[in-house]
Every structure is written in C-alpha cells, then in structure tokens.
Write a structure and sequence with these properties.
tRNA-binding domain-containing protein, tRNA-binding, three-stranded antiparallel β-sheet, 2 domains, Glutathione S-transferase Yfyf (Class Pi), Chain A, domain 2, tRNA binding, OB fold (Dihydrolipoamide Acetyltransferase, E2P), 31% helix, tRNA-bd_dom, NA-bd_OB-fold, alpha+beta
C-alpha cells in the first residue's frame, strides 16, 4: 500500500493537512517510501504517539532531523499533527523532559510550508510556544573506556603445531604479496651489501611494469587529478538553496540546514557555525554558494555533507559575516567556477583529500573586490579570477577585501 493511499486512513483535519503541505515528499527510494507509509499507518492507528510513550519516541528522534532519511516527508507532517494535541498541553517541566520530541516538533511546526498549510485549519494546528531559551542544558556522559581484548590462552597439548602453521601461513602470504610491497634483502654472507639475490633482483626489475598495470582502470583518474600544485578549480563550488534550517540540538552556535544542490538524491544536510553572525530569518530560503567536495564531517553528532561559502569582514568575525550570493536567476546545482582559461574548463576533484590541504592552500587567495565581487587572486602572479556562474558573478553584499571561507 502506498503512502498516498494510507493518508486516507488519517482522521480529519490531519488528513487535509498532510495533503496540503506541498513540499512533503513521499519518499525518494523504495526503502524511504516504505518507511513513510509505515509511519503514516502508525499515526492513523494511534500507535505512533502516546502520552505515556513519549520517552520511547524521544529516543528515536534524538539522532534525527526527520523521521525518514535526511529530508522532509509526509511522515513528518503526520507525526507533527499527531503530536500537536499532546505537546500543546505540556508545561515546560514536561516538555523539557522530552528534548528531542520538543526540538523535532518545534522544527516541523516552524517550516514555512507547514505554517501556511495550518492557517486554514486553525485552531487545530495553532503554533505551540516553547520556552527553549531557559531549557536546562543536557548533561553529556563520557563514553565508558573500552576494555582491551585478552589474548586467548594457548592450549598445552599440541600448542607447537598451530603456532608453526600460523607462522608458515603468514610466510606464504608474504611470498604471495604484491611485488611493490617487497623490501630489499638485508646484507648476508650469501648476498653482500649492495647486492640482491638473483630471484629478488628479477622481481625488483618487474616492479615498474606491475605498478604501471595497477594504474589502469577506475583509480587512475582519481590518482592523476589529485597531483600537482593545488589550484582553485579543484574545488567543487555549486549554487545551493536552503530549503530548511534549524538550530543544532546540541550546539548553540551551529545551524543544521537542508540545502538543495540540484541532486537527484535530494538536499544535503549541512552544519554551519553561523548562529552568532546571521539570524535564522536571514538564512531561510536563501540561495548561496556551497563547497560540495569536502570530506563529510561529524559536527556534534550531525554529519555535514558540504560547506556554506561565506565572506568574513577584513576586520574579523566580530565585524560581520555574510553569505556569498550567486547571481540573480540562479538555480540549485548551477556550476560555480573561476574566470580564466586555466580554470573555466577544468573539472573539480570528486573529493578533496584532507591530507593534501587543497582548500586550505588555495583559500588565502579568496577575497572580495571593490565591486563586492568574489574572486581568487593568484598569490604568485596577482592575476584576478572572479567567482561566477554562467549567469554572472557571485558577490558579497557589503564587504570589500573580505576573506572567503
């Protein structure tokens, strides 16, 4: 049974609400579709939300932004509607005791699409106020120390044989290992210093051919494209659109955004430390430039899959931070590149290798010009390469000489 069919089992006005919210997905994969249907069925049957079962639901929602996958679905609308009559009656002490449920509910009820859909159905889904500023801080318990695995005792009887066989097995594996892993033989009486036994020498001479053959196939391009001096075109910049944003449940200075980069897999979850610099109202529904090939990073329990490109005042963070804005008419997924024949046709790396510090090496050249246009200035030649899309140049609204990161 599909989620659309299951919605008919919901009671009014929740059924009308789920059908009205325009951006509520029914699942992007077969697995997600099945989960959305399952959640709606539980809500319809009254099993998803029970006043005495909020503790279990709180544990389920603690690590999640949405109940299915990492994007907003019809299951979230259904669960929000089922929670509404319960949370609307809770006093602070009670909703403080269920922080994940409260955080989740407040996040869903403040989505612009949900608020717009609830207005005709008021007061059934009126805005529930929460005093979250005075909520008690959650105590984080340290993970217990890991116990070291004890070595298994060797049996007395027949103990020599297994040990010999194990050593033999390791020797056989070593002999069968790739030639590239061979180490030069140590000087012995039969092999004087500076010379190798004949067999080893033959294997060593074959090494270049073996290495050459190993570079064929899918890995060759990844290895080749990561070589040479870091250049800005290695960075994958794209236009993104914030479709949802909330404060990080466990970090006061972080936002958790859902950003559409025009991918079939849906919006990416992105964590950015902008709470103290850009109000959440100025972040909602914004178009921006994102760095999309950084290695995903865990940010206080939430995995971030991109980075928002921002301009920091030349006088420092306290003087202001603002989003780098793509040109008018941009759409999610538009390619952002650097002007100049060396960069415009180049393809970015699939993922930046953190050990090579490519972004860190290139970043000092990022700045904003007198025209507020974002650019990369080559530190060696001082040539200026503006950051742009096919529609125009990206800008920082007010900053000149800003640092971009």
């Amino acid at each position: 049974m599909s989620a659309v069919t299951t919605i008919a089992k919901l009671h009014s006005p929740l059924k009308e609400l789920v059908n009205t919210v325009p951006d509520a997905h029914f699942g992007q994969s077969e697995k997600d579709k099945a989960e959305v249907t399952e959640w709606i069925e539980k809500v319809a049957a009254g099993g998803a939300v029970k006043p005495d079962g909020l503790k279990d639901l709180d544990a389920q929602l603690a690590p999640k932004t949405y109940v299915v996958s990492n994007y907003f679905t019809a299951a979230d609308v259904a669960l929000y509607g089922a929670l509404h009559p319960i949370l609307a009656q809770l006093q602070p002490a009670l909703y403080y005791s269920h922080p994940a449920v409260t955080r989740y509910f407040d996040h869903i009820q403040n989505r612009p699409s949900v608020r717009a859909a609830t207005e005709p159905l008021s007061p059934a889904f009126s805005l529930v106020p929460f005093d979250l500023e005075n909520a008690p801080k959650l105590e984080r318990k340290a993970d217990p120390p890991k116990e070291k695995k004890k070595a298994k005792p060797v049996e007395a009887s027949g103990s020599a044989t297994p040990v010999v066989e194990e050593k033999k097995s390791k020797k056989e594996k070593k002999d069968k290992a790739p030639v590239a892993a061979e180490e030069p033989a140590k000087p012995t009486e039969s092999a004087p210093a500076g010379k190798l036994p004949k067999e080893k020498k033959e294997k060593k001479e074959k090494k270049p051919a073996d290495e050459g053959s190993s570079k064929k196939g899918g890995n060759a391009k990844a290895v080749a494209e990561d070589t040479g001096e870091p250049v800005p075109s290695m960075i994958d910049l794209r236009v993104g659109h914030i479709v949802d944003i909330m404060k990080h449940p466990d970090a006061d200075g972080l936002y958790v955004e859902q950003i559409d980069f025009g991918e079939e897999t849906g919006p990416r979850t992105v964590v950015s430390g902008l709470v103290n610099y850009i109000p959440i109202e100025q972040m909602r529904d914004k178009y921006l430039v994102g760095v999309c090939n950084l290695k995903p990073a865990n940010m206080r329990g939430v995995k971030s899959f991109a980075m928002v490109l921002c301009a920091t005042s030349k006088d420092g963070k306290d003087a202001g931070i603002e989003l780098v804005q793509p040109p008018p008419g941009s759409t999610p997924g538009d390619r952002v590149f650097f002007e100049g024949p060396d960069f415009e046709g180049a393809s970015p790396l699939s993922q930046l290798n953190p050990k090579k510090k490519i972004f860190e090496t290139v970043q000092p050249g990022f700045t904003t010009l007198e025209s507020h246009e974002a650019a990369w200035v080559n530190p060696a030649t001082k040539s200026v390469h503006r950051v742009r899309t096919s529609r125009g140049v990206c800008v920082a609204p007010t900053f000149v000489g800003a640092s971009l990161s």
